[in-house]
Amino acid sequence: MAVDTISILFRAASFSIKARSNFVFSISPPIAHSENPKSSVSPLDDNELEFLEIVHHFVEILDRYFGSVCELDLIFNFHKAYYILDEILIACELQESSKKTVARLIAAQDSLVEAAKEQESSISNIIAQATK
């Protein structure tokens, strides 16, 4: 049942986007290829609980970073949410499961951004003083 629904949605998305896209779409859902033909697995056969666990992990890290995360945090800081997601996942696979490691990496990124902003403002001040 779920596979049929996903196939229908995939076809509908393929046909609606085909005219405006440079991507090549296939009618059937993608299949992961393996050298062993018996081990060829569709992404639709992945463990749903694993996906739910990854989403839960992502929300916990967002909650830890933003305090009590809400929709407005994600709307106004979407770049940070994407950065956090990039630290957690690579190619839809869990990269980092440690919340402390992700928090440390995010803090390092935030300090780099702050240092760049300070440097930019000091250069702007120097230019403003030189042009007066």
From TrEMBL:
<keyword id="KW-0653">Protein transport</keyword>
<dbReference type="InterPro" id="IPR022775">
    <property type="entry name" value="AP_mu_sigma_su"/>
</dbReference>
<protein>
    <submittedName>
        <fullName>AP-1 complex subunit sigma-1-like</fullName>
    </submittedName>
</protein>
<feature type="domain" description="AP complex mu/sigma subunit">
    <location>
        <begin position="45"/>
        <end position="111"/>
    </location>
</feature>
<comment type="similarity">
    <text>Belongs to the adaptor complexes small subunit family.</text>
</comment>
<keyword id="KW-0813">Transport</keyword>
<dbReference type="InterPro" id="IPR011012">
    <property type="entry name" value="Longin-like_dom_sf"/>
</dbReference>
<dbReference type="Pfam" id="PF01217">
    <property type="entry name" value="Clat_adaptor_s"/>
</dbReference>
<keyword id="KW-0472">Membrane</keyword>
<dbReference type="InterPro" id="IPR016635">
    <property type="entry name" value="AP_complex_ssu"/>
</dbReference>
